[in-house]
Design a protein that fits this description.
- The protein has about 230 residues and is an alpha+beta fold.
- A hairpin with a 4-residue loop joins strand 2 and strand 3.
- The radius of gyration is 32 Å and the shape is globular.
- It starts with 18 loop residues before the first helix and ends in a 31-residue tail after the last helix.
């Protein structure tokens, strides 16, 4: 005769689950470490822009004699414009005061303050699809700009049809102190904040350009077609 032993059920012992608390602690430690690193790491500097005052020299080198100072303005929506902020007489060349040869809205405008560079669309440190005026003959050429990584050199490339057929020319950033050497009307018209600051420091009211005091120049209309070449020397 077969006898069946009674089956004994051992009580089930539930061990506490420790994986989830460990994971939470590990994640918290990683987050704290990442926060510590981000606090200790230096902040990344903003990418330099073309905005500011630039000098073009007769040699294309920093030590050359100045030919013209160009003030690059941020017009919003990544669009930039350059105006003639100061010009310097050149030996053997006529000292132009107005653009007699211009054929667009700049005809007979004073060279000082004239819109020299237009329609530059910013893409990082590169500015494309713009154009530059040659005030000597009124020609308007295609152009692009590139700001150096350190923000101190602006490379202008004037070209025919495509940038591959153009030529580079370097301009050099001027220090903020150079603003004091500009005509007060130029500063007031295009840099009203700096004009107000200068006036406050001198204890005088700002010099107002006729009909333009405190107002930035509106973005000009696109320049007409006129071919393209490297910037005139």
């Amino acid at each position: 005769m077969i006898t069946h032993r009674p089956t004994t059920h051992r009580p089930t012992t539930h061990r506490p689950t420790t994986h989830r608390p460990i994971r939470l602690v590990a994640r918290a430690a990683v987050a704290a470490f990442a926060l510590l690193l981000s606090a200790a790491a230096p902040s990344v500097a903003a990418e330099p822009t073309a905005a500011g005052l630039w000098q073009r020299t007769d040699t294309g080198k920093p030590g050359g004699k100045p030919v013209v100072w160009v003030l690059m303005l941020d017009r919003g929506n990544n669009m930039y414009e350059g105006i003639v902020a100061k010009s310097f007489p050149q030996a053997g060349q006529p000292n132009l005061t107005i653009c007699e040869e211009c054929e667009d809205d700049r005809k007979n405008q004073p060279i000082l303050g004239i819109s020299l560079i237009r329609d530059m669309k910013r893409k990082g440190r590169v500015y494309e699809n713009g154009n530059i005026l040659d005030p000597r003959n009124g020609d308007v050429w295609k152009a692009m700009l590139t700001v150096s990584p350190d923000g101190q050199t602006l490379t202008l490339r004037g070209y025919l049809m495509t940038p591959a057929l153009g030529k580079d020319e370097d301009w050099f950033r001027l220090p903020d102190t150079a603003i004091s050497q500009l005509d007060p009307e130029i500063v007031t018209k295009f840099m009203p904040e700096q004009a107000a600051m200068q006036a406050a420091q001198a204890g005088k009211p700002p010099v107002a350009a006729p009909g333009t005091a405190g107002k930035a120049k509106a973005p000009p209309a696109p320049a007409p077609k006129g071919g393209a070449m490297a910037p005139a020397k």
